[in-house]
Write a structure and sequence with these properties.
The protein has eleven helices and 13 strands. It is an alpha/beta fold. The chain binds oxa(dethia)-CoA (UT7). Oxa(dethia)-CoA binds next to helix 2, helix 6 and helix 8.
Length: 336
């Protein structure tokens, strides 16, 4: 048995900065409300016609991760792509990355686990590496939310939160099993599937043909729906649980955590978790202020920035944790 280790990280966000004041010009919202409830100051949106897509941003992040890992693209044995906003309903973006990076015909898997997608992704990669099946796995989280949001007052409670961007990691075989990814912990509770969801074009019993036939301009099937307070209440409980689960599995205490990189859902959630585990400000990495919630991309973007800023060092104990739509949630305990 081997461990897997993150040997390269990269991220990409569009240049286009959208501030809270920008949003207040197109819907009934304001900077004070957004900052007070979420901590977000600005986010990035792709610009129509500029060519940025979920796949292309993932490819850009992947190129940086590959270069930093010091490997060749043809050393990659498998691709895992986590997103809720694929370029196409099918096929998923994994194969588009294989094509656009010009990688040989390795397997490509799409993960549909929304905010916890990157943790699910590295967990999958970790299992393949542990068993010896693959040596280097590329894991990407990327989202273009801006195209799918209701940018009117009707959609403000969801649309002000989300932003676009991508992050990527190369996981590689590590022979020293005291290093790298020590464990991952995954959960779901489908009972609450519709509390944070976008129903079209799958739709359950209402088909796309029905939407077209009804031709109703007020049809909300293609808009994301979030029961914000319910999601918030579940998030703080599940984040805490799954971090404790990860620590206990490795005989660690909260005081052993050098850096917690939580999914950037809401600064208030991160602050709640920080307080609960008694962590100092420099032990929790937050960048939601600059990017909003980028769902599957949020952890790899945050992890890349934390690493770039020298906040993740050799020998550190790192905790990644996420909760979101599904509900799904998970954690990863890493010895860097
Ligand atoms: O990443 C996936 C996981 N997602 C999460 O973890 C998100 C969890 N939920 C949240 O972060 C929060 O619930 C939100 C930030 C989404 C909303 O904050 P809230 O404190 O739960 O606000 P609320 O939805 O209860 O709305 C409070 C008020 C309402 O007005 P009334 O009914 O009190 O008059 C809303 O209509 O705020 C109003 N409101 C807004 N006002 C200005 C909702 N959205 C906005 C807005 N600007 N953008």
């Amino acid at each position: 048995m081997y461990n897997s280790k993150i040997i390269g990280l990269g991220h990409y966000v569009p240049d286009n900065v959208v501030t809270n004041d920008d949003l207040s010009k197109i819907m009934d919202t304001n900077d004070a409300w957004i900052q007070e409830r979420t901590g977000i100051k600005e986010r990035r949106y792709v610009v129509k016609g500029d060519g940025d897509t979920t796949t292309s941003m993932g490819v850009k992040a992947a190129k940086v991760a590959i270069e930093r890992a010091g490997i060749d693209k043809d050393d990659i044995d498998f691709i895992v792509f986590a997103t809720l906003s694929p370029d196409y309903y099918f096929p998923g973006p994994g194969v588009l990355v294989q094509r656009d990076l010009g990688i040989k015909t390795v397997g490509a898997l799409d993960v549909r686990n929304q905010c916890s997608g990157f943790i699910y992704g590295i967990s999958v990669a970790d299992q393949y590496i542990k068993t010896g099946m693959y040596k280097n796995v590329l894991v990407i989280g990327s989202e273009v939310h801006s195209h799918g949001l209701d940018m009117t007052t009707r959609g403000r409670s969801v649309s002000v939160i989300f932003g676009d961007g991508a992050g990527a990691a190369i996981l590689s075989r590590e022979e020293d099993t005291s290093k790298g990814i020590l464990s991952t912990h995954l959960h779901s509770e489908g009972q609450h599937a519709e509390e944070l969801s976008l129903l079209a074009p799958g739709m359950g019993n209402r088909w796309v043909s029905d939407i077209i036939a009804d031709n109703d301009p007020n049809d909300e099937s293609y808009l994301p729906h979030m029961n914000g307070q319910f999601v918030f209440k579940n998030a703080v409980v599940r984040f805490s649980e799954v971090i404790v689960e990860g620590l206990e599995a490795n005989n660690l205490q909260a005081s052993d955590i050098d850096m917690l990189v939580p999914h950037q859902a809401n600064l208030r959630i991160s602050q709640f978790i920080q307080k609960k585990f008694g962590l100092k400000d420099d032990q929790v990495f937050n960048n939601i202020m600059n990017y909003g919630n980028t769902t599957a991309a949020s952890i790899p973007i945050a992890l890349t920035e934390a690493w770039e800023q020298g906040k993740v060092k050799e020998g550190d104990t790192l905790v990644l944790a996420a909760f979101g739509s599904g509900f799904t949630w998970g954690s990863a305990i890493i010895k860097w």
